Amino acid sequence: MTAQPVLKTDLVQTQLVKPCLVSSELNRELNKDLSKELKKSTQSKFSKAAARYNTHANVQKHAASDLFSLIKPGFNKNKLCVDLGAGPLVNTHTLQSMFASVIAMDLSLNMLQSSDLTAPKICADMDNLPLQANSVDVIYSNFAVQWSANFSALMQSLYSILKPGGQAYISTVVEGSLNEIKTAFAALDSNSHINTFNSELYINQSVQNAGFTINSAKKRIYTDEYITPLKAIASIKAIGATTQNHTNTRQGLLTKSALQKVCSAYPLINNKACVSYHVVLLSLEKH
Predict the structure, then answer these.
(1) Quick one: which of 33, 112, 175, 264 is 20 to 30 A from 76 by CA?
(2) Does residue 44 register a pLDDT over 80?
(3) Cβ within 8 Å of residue 216, ≥6 positions away
(4) What InterPro entries does the entry give (predicted)?
(5) Using H for helix, E for strand and C for coil, what is the string for 177-237?
């Protein structure tokens, strides 16, 4: 089938091999629960991080490997998979070896364009998925759905687009993550300097309320080590993950003295500055 030309609206830029997947509801508002400004900020920061993402996304790579291990072997030759939050397509190539067709989807056009991998790509907001109901066999999403404005609604949407018997393999960052950075900034002020992540309980309740059967739910703690607190703090910026999803945030850049205060308060383990991510790995099924 001939690929369709790039479709552009104020919400989505799409290049699809299978136009039957495109929903007619492309003109819904960008989101309902998060401001457009915040969503655009998220998109901008991930776009700016595209060039250096692969170098710094070490924890994401470990989580991706663990998520791949949950995928049921066999019977995948004719299946269509969506790599949701694909970024620079770091996992898409592996998925292509497992499934007949793989569509890479991400909020950041720069992320998608930074890869030379040949694959259909959709630049779209996960909270406004341009996919028809019962059209996808498998959803794979690594380190992405925590950026959703409404995780519960997203799970309902993913359940809708999956075919009966469809599978979803999802890793998501949860409460307790980046605690080292939170501790360091507490020496500076009472404002929040990191994202607020959903609890493991809320994650499990949301997927069950959406109708999914949970085949597996595992929690892992992944840790990156850096030689200095400054490099540890810079690491989350390097992967684009500095957008804060709440209002209690500190405005403006840190002064040199403020940054020194934060670095001095950073908790060290064996003289290393660690950044830890608490992650839930899910294997879900639609019946």
Answers:
(1) 112
(2) no
(3) 70, 281, 282, 283
(4) Malonyl-ACP_OMT, Methyltransf_11, SAM-dependent_MTases_sf
(5) CCHHHHHHHCCCCCCECCCCCCCHHHHHHHHHHHCCEEEEEEEEEEEEEECCHHHHHHHHH
**Residue whose entry in the numeric block shows the structure tokens 């939170």:** 182
Q: At what angle do helices 229-238 and 256-264 cross, to 10 degrees?
A: 110
Cα 223 from Cα 188, distance rounded (Å): 24
Question: Residue 192 has what pLDDT?
Answer: 77
Which residue pairs from 10-13 have beta carbons closer than 8 angstroms and sit at least 24 positions apart in sequence? 11/124, 11/125, 11/128, 12/122, 12/123, 12/124, 12/125, 12/128, 12/130, 13/109, 13/123, 13/124
Per DSSP, what are the bridge partners of residue 103? Answer: 82
User: What digits encode the pLDDT tens for the residues 178-205?
Assistant: 999 999 999 999 887 888 899 999 999 9
* pLDDT at 41 > cutoff 90: no
Structure tokens at 250: 């500190």
Q: Determine the 3-state secondary structure of 275 from DSSP.
A: strand
What is the rounded end-to-end Cα distance, in angstroms, of the chain? 30
Where does the pLDDT of residue 53 fall: very low under 50, low under 70, confident under 90, or very high at 90 and above? very low
Q: What is the DSSP letter of 10?
A: S
